[in-house]
Amino acid sequence: MASMLASCSNNKDFSYELPSSYDGKASKYYIKHVIQNWSTKPFIQGAYSKRKGDVKKMATPVADKIYFAGEAMNIKGNTIAVHGASESAYLMLQQMLKSINQIPKS
Predict the structure, then answer these.
(1) Hey, how many other C-beta atoms are within 10 angstroms of the C-beta on 103?
(2) What distance lies between CA 52 and its chain's CA centroid?
(3) Predicted local confidence at residue 7, as pLDDT
(4) Cβ atoms < 10 Å from Cβ of 54
(5) Confidence grade of residue 45 (pLDDT, cut at 50, 70, 90)
(6) Mean pLDDT, range 64-87, rounded to an integer
(7) Are 95 and 67 in contact (CB under 8 A)?
(8) What is the Cα 22 distance to its own chain's centre?
(9) pTM
(10) DSSP 100
(11) Residue 20 pLDDT greater than 80, yes or no
(12) For residue 73, what are the contacts with CB-CB under 8 A and spacing of at least 6?
């Protein structure tokens, strides 16, 4: 995972690392990814999320087809910045793989 994040930060294509990073289970479902350097985007100047309501309810997948991730959807409470967003994405990916029986349920 760390090597994938390093590749992202260098704007390299990391899809070649999926098989080794997830024991070959993610590549089958991979469609595409987008890498953006937010420091070059004129309308992204940084902000903090503030959520209202029950995050577990808000982050619940819809029919095991629509998943919500991002710093505001982090069910562990890490709701600040990129590390909270990336942790949330990782947790949702685990849920997605569980829903298609690709990793053991814990």
Answers:
(1) 16
(2) 21
(3) 43
(4) 9
(5) low
(6) 83
(7) yes
(8) 14
(9) 0.49
(10) T
(11) no
(12) 51, 55, 58, 59, 88, 92
Which residues share a beta bridge with 62? 66
- What is the structure's pLDDT at 12? 54
DSSP-derived 3-state class of residue 1: coil
Domain ranges (residues) in the chain? 1-38, 48-106
Q: Which two tokens stand for residue 39?
A: 């420091």
Backbone angles phi, psi at 99, to 5 degrees: -65, -25
Pair 25, 103: CB distance under 8 Å: yes
Do 27 and 40 form a contact (C-beta atoms < 8 A)? no
What secondary structure does DSSP assign to 14-82, as a single string?
-GGGHHHHTTTSSGGG--------GGG-TT---------S-HHHHT--BTTTB---SGGG-TTS--SHH
Q: Give pLDDT, residue 53.
A: 78
Going by C-alpha positions, the residue among 13, 40, 15 that lies closest to residue 26 is 15
| First-last CA distance in the chain | 20
Phi, psi angles (nearest 5°) of residue 62: -100, 115
